[in-house]
Amino acid sequence: MSKGYVKGGTPIGSNSLCRTCSNAQVMTGYRESEMVTMCDGVHPNIVVPFRIYDCNRYHDRNKPSWHQMQKLAIRVSADKPKPVGFKAGAGFGETTVRVVENDDDCNEDDE
Q1: CB within 8 A of 72, min separation 6: which ones?
Q2: How many angstroms separate the CA atoms of 39 and 59, rounded?
Q3: Measuring CA to CA, which residue among 49, 51, 44 is closest to residue 21?
Q4: For the segment 65-101, what is each residue's pLDDT rounded down to a tens digit?
Q5: How many CB atoms lie within 10 A of CB 37?
Q6: What are the extents of the domains in the chain?
């Protein structure tokens, strides 16, 4: 049985959204308590004193932007579509048989 989702319930995990946000500058020290997070998504920039669970200005830095996706996109044109289905025309109904003669030289190489 899977766990159900409860809206507004207690969050599971303790990872901050700021770790993967492109608007955040996270500086960490050697200890867990040595961490300063600055948010560039608001004006004026603020220091965030706690871990963030939900943010309306969150922008994932691991996802490409619209400009990056346009640069990577493959151009597809719909100029002249190819015919769909099996080809039926002159020469397609005929069968071609190719006769291959047995060559004695080929059999000597196998031995």
Answers
A1: 64
A2: 12
A3: 51
A4: 889 899 988 887 777 766 667 766 666 666 666 677 7
A5: 20
A6: 11-76
Residues 64, 72: Cα–Cα separation, whole Å:
10
**pLDDT confidence tier of residue 111, bands split at 50, 70 and 90:** very low
Tokens of 3: 């766990």
- What are the DSSP calls for 24-86, one per residue? EEEEE-SSTT-EEEEE-SSSS-EEE-S--S--TT--BTTSPPHHHHHHHPPP---SSPPPPS-
CA dihedral 40, 11, 8, 39 (to 10 degrees): -10
Cα–Cα distance measured from residue 27 to residue 54, given in angstroms and rounded to the nearest whole number: 20
CA distance 107 to 91: 36
